[in-house]
Write a structure and sequence with these properties.
It is found in: Cell envelope. The radius of gyration is 42 Å and the shape is elongated. By secondary structure, it is of the alpha+beta class. The strands form two sheets. A six-stranded antiparallel beta barrel has the order 1-7-10-9-8-11. It has a three-stranded antiparallel β-sheet with strand order 2-4-5. Helices cover 45% and strands 25% of the residues.
Length: 317
């Protein structure tokens, strides 16, 4: 009889433990994290903070070598100046000396065309007066030369007209666009140069500085990770048996390992989909192992460290 009573008592304890686990969501305390990515693949030349150190907004954290970015910025500024000068040249139009040169070229080309045309006319007249006095090949060359010089004169006249009409509006628009593009490139490099001096974006505490003095982190790699906010939050995994009791805004009790009294909080996020395994892949007792990621905000500020294990239960009605 005593053995049966002992077994019954153990079964009751196991069922009670299962019931308690079903009404509790385990997790850890976390802070909002800000990762400060490397804006350029440059060598770290100064580290001003250590992991665990409290920082204020705007406080220097790290410095990257600015030499390469500064040189690129100088080149970009020089390109801006070149494009502006090209635009100014287009706005001003052709110089008077270039127009005079084009007029002189036109006059010379027309003189050659007249001479070639006169020579052709003389040959044709002689050929008409005396048969076989002029070779057919000479007449063909004279005719080709007259056409060639006439074409050169037309080209010289078109070149002069182009100078007299000035720069086209489309060319000026392209020149202005080139100036804007060069200026945008210079502005982007100026921003990147400023980012090489890494500062804290908010008040908080440095969680990690992954790279050391002299390292060269790739672009986008986190140079520093900062924990921000005046209180942590609980990231928990809600069991399926407890899921129906909670919704966003629900009041809960947060039990922290090492503290006797629970902390009041409320659910600020609750995922609709279970983590790790979709519900349709489970059946029978396996479905009871589903859990849903949730976040619980504490109602009052706290200086508890991140990483502490917690469990969350619905608040008593």
């Amino acid at each position: 009889m005593s053995g049966r009573l002992l077994a019954l008592g153990l079964a009751v304890l196991v069922l009670a433990g299962c019931h308690r686990e079903a009404d509790q969501a385990p997790g850890t305390l976390e802070y909002d994290r800000i990762a400060l990515p490397a804006p350029a693949a440059e060598r770290i030349v100064a580290v001003h903070v250590r992991a665990g150190e409290a920082v204020k907004a705007g406080q220097p954290l790290l410095d990257l070598d600015p030499a390469h970015t500064r040189a690129s910025l100088d080149a970009a500024l020089a390109e801006v100046k070149r494009q502006k000068e090209a635009l100014a040249e287009g706005v001003a139009g052709p110089r008077r000396e270039d127009i005079d040169k084009a007029r002189a070229s036109l006059a010379a080309a027309e003189a050659q065309a007249r001479d070639a045309r006169s020579y052709l006319q003389r040959l044709m007249k002689v050929a008409q007066q005396e048969k076989d006095a002029v070779a057919a090949s000479d007449l063909d060359r004279a005719r080709a030369n007259a056409q060639n010089t006439r074409g050169q004169a037309d080209a010289a006249r078109a070149a002069l007209d182009q100078l007299l009409h000035g720069t086209r509006s489309e060319q000026l628009a392209q020149a202005r666009a080139a100036v804007d593009a060069a200026q945008a490139q210079a502005d982007a490099l100026r921003v990147t140069l400023g980012k090489l001096h890494v500062v804290a974006p908010r008040d908080g505490r440095i969680d990690d500085v992954p790279y050391r003095l002299g390292d060269q982190a790739p672009v986008g790699a986190p140079l520093a990770i900062e924990l921000v906010g005046d209180r942590p939050y609980a990231r928990i995994y809600v069991p399926v048996a407890m899921r129906a009791q909670l919704k966003v805004g629900s009041t809960v009790q947060v039990y922290v390992q090492g503290r006797d009294q629970p902390l009041a909080g409320h659910v600020r996020l609750l995922r609709a989909e279970p983590v790790f395994t979709p519900y349709y892949a489970l059946s029978g007792d396996d479905a009871t192992r589903l859990s849903y990621l949730a976040e619980v905000a504490l109602d009052r500020p706290s200086d508890l460290p991140a990483g502490l294990p917690v469990h969350v239960a619905p608040a008593a009605p």
